[in-house]
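Reviewer 2 asked us to include a model.

Predict the structure of this chain.
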Amino acid sequence: MESSDESPSIAEQGKGIIVYKVGERQYVLDEAAAKSAFLQKRVINGRNSSEFNVLPLKYSWAYELYRKMDANHWIPHEIPMFDDVAQWSSSDYLNPVERNIVKFGLGYFSASEGLIGDCGYSVIRENLCAPELKMVIGRHVHEENIHTDSLLYMISSLGINPHEVNAMFLSLNSIKDKNELIMSGMPYLKKDIDLTKTENKKLFAKAIFSLTQVMEGAQFWALFLPILHLCRLGKMPGVGQMFRYTLRDETNHIELGRCLLLDLFREEPDILDDVFVEECSNFLLQAMDTEFSFVDDLLPQSLPGLSPNELKKFVCYNANRRLIGLGWDPVVKFEEEIVLENPLDWASEVIYLKKNESFFETRVTEYSKASELRGVDEESDLFEGINC
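Predicted model (structure tokens):
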């Protein structure tokens, strides 16, 4: 094929070979090899090379979710804590139950976020093959670092003794039991593991389920709701704003885990059988038992507008949404009834941050960088997500 010096030309040579010419220079490209590499893109047991070639995208949902997560980026130290410090310093403004909620929130969340970040990287990311999946998990881990930074900022601003926070995480059974349950299968997966074996595939899938659907998807909510309820009452607005941004991030992490599991089930059909679904459902039920104990410690008596039983029922409702999102039957009960309806009407209004919203008269920075990326601002976004 003739070519000029001004523009490149391409000639197909057959069998997937392309000759690319620019002037007198000729480049031979193996299109067949590139297509073969694309076909080997898998969640696990695929092509796992060091070049980290994201294109062409196979898991487009992962990149869309990455962009959505990036558009929601926030910086803890830009959120004012003046009102929180004044309220926390006053002996009259917060009652003992409200102070307990804040301390429990900081005590549990400060270490659990580190657990999620570490396992997200060493357990999930390091066992994935497709670069775009590694990319979005990397963003997930980065957001856990932001959440940890926000907790350091809150603790230092309020002048809370960090040893007291750590002691709460290490000493209270309701907190220890929650995290020990989640961590029960993680250490083994941090080592080299043969993911061609069905039992190991199931262990890996259960780890994703445990971190994203159980811990982030169900356990965190008993903590978030009381803190956001305090904000409804005009109390601890800076803490509430940071937890609200964090909760917006967590909804994306839940969706990330859900989509990852659905693709894993499609590519590795030997994982998804009745036994696996039953094991995961039972694991979630165990997590709800630890969550009820946590609620008893977190909220030992009712606040105006929020009782321990209402909070437990909301946690059950949220847990069942995780199962439904995977196409499984809801099994989580409260007082012998499977909970399928949100018992707290105000929760959706408080949880989902809308653009240009004034949050208790504090400045809210809108971090969206592209107009086509919408934030999580409706309950349906949390539970239905993007196509995957």
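The beta strands are 9-14, 17-22, 25-30, 333-334, 337-338. The chain has 15 helices and five strands. We have added this to the supplementary material.
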